[in-house]
Amino acid sequence: MEPLLLVALFLLLLPLLLVPLALLARRRGGRRTPPLSLLVVAGSGGHTTEILRLLSCLSESYSPRHYIFADSDKMSEAKIRSFEQKRAETFSNSQFTLDRIPRSREVRQSWTSSVVTTLYSILYSLPLTYKLKPDLILCNGPGTCVPVCISALLLGLLGIKRAIIVYVESICRVETLSLSGKILYYFSDYFIVQWPDLKEKYPKSVYLGRIV
């Protein structure tokens, strides 16, 4: 076969080869980000309000969302259900679960008894965290987040599931960290503060300004 004929044949077949490749590239480029299982630790008072403000900025890729809060928390469940109901109007495939664990420490509880209740809360949280196996844990200061995060760390050390821990210190903390923050500062993957003074005191932290 003559060279010119081969060239002409190649030019005729080239579109047939490029079209499938272009369609494949477009399909890959249009794929959604794989969903991330998100564990959210809520807390009484303003903690739940702040964490829900953060969640309102997240895309539908963060699904399902697993909420954990203390068994003595009487307010968080209603706030979460209201938030998820509104979110479902935008994202039809919105999925979430609710779980309660024993509170690790009550207000004004003695340090000695707090150690005992925290250990109990960790033992309770461990099988729950194992069942949920989150990809990402988001918390902002309630005492409940300490046993949950420690449980996740233990699962990671055992090679069962490695979860990324993102801790966002409450906007109320201007100069000092909360007790939960002082503990999880050393164990979280990302530690976010909302005031520049805290960034100066805790170099590992990330200062993003006010985010809630």
Quick gist of this model?
The chain is α/β, with parallel strands linked by helices.
Description:
The chain is α/β, with parallel strands linked by helices. The protein is 47% helix and 15% strand. The chain has helices at 3-29, 46-55, 76-90, 111-132, 145-157, 179-184, 196-201; strands at residues 38-41, 65-70, 96-101, 136-139, 164-168, 190-193, 206-207. The protein has a seven-stranded parallel β-sheet, with helices on both faces. It is globular, with a radius of gyration of 24 Å.
Question: Would you spell out the secondary-structure blueprint of this structure?
Answer:
Elements: H1 3-29, E1 38-41, H2 46-55, E2 65-70, H3 76-90, E3 96-101, H4 111-132, E4 136-139, H5 145-157, E5 164-168, H6 179-184, E6 190-193, H7 196-201, E7 206-207
Parallel strand pairs: 1-2, 1-4, 2-3, 4-5, 5-6, 6-7
Helix pairs in contact: 4-5
